[in-house]
Amino acid sequence: QVQLVESGGGLVQAGGSLRHSCSASGFTISEYAMGWYRQAPGKERELVAHISAGGMRYYGDSVKGRFTISRDNAKNTVYLQMNNLKPEDTAVYYCARCRSSVICSPGGGDYWGQGTQVTVSS
Question: Per-residue pLDDT tens for 76-100?
């Protein structure tokens, strides 16, 4: 049974940092691209970052230089380190297993975490 369990998130002031974790079970993350998405109220879901099975990383323009995606294969866990947070980063963040080993589509993956709220105050 595939499961993605997220932790992290919370309330932080602008300029602060948070780290999300996404612990996977039922499959091996090193065989898939893994992605982080977010959805703010009234907005469409956005692909924030993904990491391929080979370790290639992609970042959305809005987070480039501030967010870092990584994974620990031994722990079967994916991370999203978020630095220099801005109020516009406020959203529910989701991790996802992507449908290929190379890339995550903007439309999402085939399995999702439960979502965690990030609120950045100005």
Answer: 999 999 999 999 999 999 999 999 9
